[in-house]
Amino acid sequence: MASPPLPSSSPIRPRDFTPTAVMTRCAQKHRPPMFEEASYSPPPWASHLHPLPSRFISLGQFPTPIHKWNLPNLPNGTEVWIKRDDLTGMQLSGNKVRKLEFLMAEAKAEGADCVITLGGIQSNHCRATAVAARYLNLDCFLILRTNRTQVDVDPGLVGNLLVERMVGAHVELVSKEEYRQHGSEMLGKMLKKKLLSEGRAPYLIPVGGSNSLGVWGYLEAVREIEEQLRESTCHPDGFDDIVMACGSGGTTAGLALGFHLSPLKARVHGYGVCDDPEYFYDFIQGLLDGMNANVAARDIVNIVDAKGLGYAMSTNAELAFVKEIAEATGIVLDPVYSGKALFGLLRDMKEKPGEWSGKKVLFVHTGGLLGMYDKLQQLQPFISKWKRFQIPESTSEAGMNVGRMF
Ligand SMILES: Cc1ncc(COP(=O)(O)O)c(C=O)c1O
Which reactions fall under this protein's catalytic activity (predicted)? Predict the structure, then answer.
């Protein structure tokens, strides 16, 4: 029986049955309970890849919603939709969760008692790995890269560090110079050797979780989008373009391969936030070769330079833009990844409106909100003013319902 209409004065709004809400509820019926290992079967269009992962562990909140994003100043007829991979969880949130579902399953299958990973001092990947490890009763060792002047002092509790240290990750600092000299692979191996000599059983996860196994997380995301589109009526034709930030390359590799192999077929654009396009094409090629995908990276993805001043460094214009988008749409982008990617995308749309006009674009928000805390000082000038609330002097009302707290 249909429920009676709500009176127009009611503060309760009728349940939202817009296409967005439909897309949010559908899909992913077959996921096992959280933190439980399950055997894995690939989407049919990816079953020829090898090696195939045999197991995964459910860690995140999926499917993530897809909804329309009313961005200002789009070219005529361009629609932008957003996939909310920033909502894959709370402490364990963002794009890394998808990769960790496969990487952690391998760690467990190999009998690891701890995991090692590496990243910048505000690495979202390191924070997600630390939380996932704790959920699965594994210790976590993090090698974090910081400035030379900071390498011998307590790194503090800002942003991702707070969560990492709350869940008991072992934080080990290296300077940028040391990181450059030895490389992430060698540093990870050094720590692994040390832990092995202490009788531990470590599993080493590369920077950003970006190896050929981690890429499966974003092949799965394409299967998820496929299901969301199949079960909704809002976008029977799917999307023309897929856009995301590209940092260590795994997310872009997975989406590019998934949209190439699946029936969805869309152009995939990775906005590089740290290295040059050449570097990313080569790195992604290595990931694809590791899956025996038999395809050229350059044929399936367009890498765009969006690094600006460099990794994790923001111009004032980028930060003002992140603020402007938050104020206009309610979506808060992180300054290091999705903020730069959208900044680059809207720049491209402005420069070449003809290429984007009439297109349906899906932007993947990959999370990273905690990284914003590292930029508080630089953000301050863009934040709106505050003032003290003025209580009218004539007020004679006694306080009611104050409660014991006050
Ligand atoms: C929030 C966020 N978005 C995007 C990326 C980029 O993803 P990937 O490393 O898979 O290229 C990262 C990590 O590097 C990240 O932490």
Answer: D-cysteine + H2O = hydrogen sulfide + pyruvate + NH4(+) + H(+)
CB-based contacts of 241: which residues, under 8 Å, 6+ apart? 266, 267, 268, 269, 356, 359, 360, 361, 362
Q: Return phi, psi of residue 175, to 5°.
A: -80, 160
Residue nearest atom 7 of ligand 1, based on CA coordinates: 247
* Fold match between domain 19-95+212-382 and domain 96-208: yes
Q: What's the pTM?
A: 0.92
Nearest to 114 by CA among 193, 202, 209, 199: 202
pLDDT tens column, 36-57: 999 999 999 999 999 999 999 9
pLDDT at residue 108, as a whole number:
98
CA of 328 to the centre of ligand 1 (A): 24
Q: Does 398 score more than 80 pLDDT?
A: no
Q: Is the pLDDT of residue 9 over 50?
A: no
3-state SS assignment for residue 112: coil
Let me know if 210 is a catalytic residue. no
Nearest to 92, CA basis, from 146, 37, 64, 129: 129
Can you give 223-254 as a three-state secondary structure string? HHHHHHHHCCCCCCCCCCEEEEEECCCHHHHH
Report the top-level CATH class of 96-208: alpha beta
Q: What architecture does CATH give domain 19-95+212-382?
A: 3-Layer(aba) Sandwich (3.40)
Place of tokens 């809400």: 21
Average pLDDT score over the chain: 92
Which amino acids bring their CB within 6 angstroms of ligand 1? 94-95, 124-125, 208, 210, 245-252, 334, 337, 366-368
Q: Which pLDDT score is estimated for 2?
A: 39
Segment among 210-214, 237-241, 396-400 with least mean pLDDT: 396-400
Q: How far is the CA of 89 from the centre of ligand 1 (A)?
A: 15
Mean pLDDT in residue range 133-148 = 98
Q: Which atom of ligand 1 is nearest to the CA of 247?
A: 11
Ligand 1 atom nearest residue 249's Cα: 11
What is the whole-number distance in angstroms between the Cα of residue 129 and the centre of ligand 1?
Answer: 13
Minimum-distance ligand 1 atom for the alpha carbon of 251 = 10
Catalytic residue among 3, 54, 58, 123: 123
Domain spans of the chain, in order of start: 19-95+212-382, 96-208
Confidence of residue 10 (pLDDT cuts 50, 70, 90): very low
Ligand 1 centroid to residue 223 C-alpha, Å: 20
